[in-house]
Amino acid sequence: MDAVMIPGGVLAFDAGNSKTDVALVAADGSVLGTARGGGFEPQNIGAAAAVAGLEPLVIAAAASAGLDVGDVPLVQQVSACLANADLPVEEEWLTAAFESYGWGQSVYVTNDTFALLRAGVDEPRGVAVVCGAGINCAGLLPDGRTARFPALGKLSGDWGGGQHLAEEAIWAAARADDGRGPATALVTALTSHYGVASLTTLFEGFHLGDLPAVRKLEATPVLFQVAAAGDAVASAIVRHQAEEIVAMATVALRRLDLLDEPVPVVLGGGVLTAGHPLLVETVVRLLSGAAPKAVPRVIDVPPVVGAALLGLDRTAAAPAAQAALRAAFSAPHAA
């Protein structure tokens, strides 16, 4: 294999909490190589260690293209859309870590919400809301202006995402079970799902460690099942999530002076793409009232496409490159 630079090439990263996708893309939008790895957690291990964990993926993507990662830059542009890159200082730390590897002549680091946004629009113009494990929102204009949120959870005013919804479901069931809150079918649904005799047994399991904490997330799909069956308490939680999604989108649109213009609002993340009609239909209905000209879209290509498109935007690639890139990831074999 040769260590050569791909003229006008882009090395794109979509690094989320649970998985990371890497794509090596030529100037014409053709995909030369891809790789997938685990989650990206600089907030736990530091920026340098988190980026070091990406090196095997870069090597794998280059190898699939018949290339070596050598002493010369592999591409013109590194485009890294990263979970947990929420604050400017975090972006600075991560940019320095990427630059230390010399993979590209230029490095662009931003939050992974921008990958979702760019993947869902034909030009860098619009707003995206991601509702997965957590919740975040970003807006972008062709002139580079952005609208963003710190996305640090309750600390920065956020409400929602899969982890939060799971806690809300268990909380509502607990209060119904002991009489502090209204009755809800979540009580029987959760005890049945976890195979326990009572909610008290469920609480003990989580509190004492007999049940892994990660299993709390299983309460989220239970919540949506109960809400879909018409339970008032569960439905209210789902509606609250929809209201938060629309609130974030509306604020981003207002900040970018887009409230009165036709503009895409891209919806993504595991909660929004899981096919829960009650949530998506409520979001669409509420958005039509708050921003009547907004056009909601559920993303249909992987967000790494958006990371690559942001890279191609920065290299001034020909418009046909965008179509070629989307076509490559829309093919039946594409990951």
Task: Describe what you observe in this structure.
It is a single chain. The protein has 335 residues and is α/β, with parallel strands linked by helices. The protein has helices spanning 42-45, 47-52, 55-64, 88-99, 113-119, 162-178, 186-194, 199-208, 219-228, 232-255, 277-290, 303-314, 319-330; strands at residues 6-15, 20-25, 31-37, 75-82, 104-111, 126-131, 135-140, 146-148, 263-268, 294-298. A hairpin with a 4-residue loop joins strand 1 (6-15) and strand 2 (20-25). Helix 12 (303-314) packs antiparallel against helix 13 (319-330).
Beta percentage is: 15-25%
Mean residue pLDDT: 93
SSE string, helix = H, strand = E?
EEEHHHEHEHEEEHHHHHEHEHH
Sheet with most strands: 5 strands, mixed
Structural Rg? 21 Å
Structural class: alpha/beta
What oligomeric assembly is this protein in?
A: single chain
Q: How far do the termini sit from each other?
A: 25 Å
Provide a concise account of the structure shown.
With 335 residues, the protein is of the alpha/beta class. The protein contains 13 helices and ten strands. A five-stranded mixed beta sheet has the order 3-2-1-4-5. Strands 8-7-6-9-10 form a five-stranded mixed beta sheet, sandwiched between helices.
